[in-house]
Amino acid sequence: MQExxxxxxxxxxxxxxxxxxxxAQLKRIERPKRSLLLSPGEVSSxxxxxxxxxxxxxxxNDGKEFSTGFxxxxxxxxxxxxxxxQTPSYEYLELLEDSRLWVLSKGQLEQxxxxxxxxxxxxxxxxxxYYTRSEWRAHQLRTxxxxxxxxxFTSEYAPILNRVSNRHIASxxxxxxxxxxxxxxxxx
Length: 188
Fold this sequence. Notes:
Helix content is 49%, strand content 24%. The chain has eight helices and eight strands, in the order ααββββββαββααααα. The protein is globular, with a radius of gyration of 18 Å. The termini are far apart.
């Protein structure tokens, strides 16, 4: 929980009263590798903070997997479209490793926003980071070659590169696993 509190403090100053209210609401959970935090058709109604582990977002289209993102330690985890609109999700949130998470329901989050105006700034900054990353990824997918996409991935996701399979990386970059293997071999 200390990492979460430190992260919030780095984003914007918050009161001790807020931190007490937050820690009283948070629930710690542990889940094994391959567990699902969310499945298609479910509404994303919980905000997770990943203390340890690795999460992948993905969806299926005609039986083929498309990874939407990877979240490692220190990340907030939601399915954005489902969470913000409270509509059924199209994606899975899957643990790629045994994980420890802190959980806050959407209702609890909204109550904290209402009681503590300074927390709204934190929420806005986190949302801006999510949106900016999403926009940058969309730009890269439209403009970069396969080699450039892989290079950008290795730069942005260096800490988890060896924790994610070629198949998952390929589905994130819109490439085949064979292309990712070939690019990796060339880089060695």
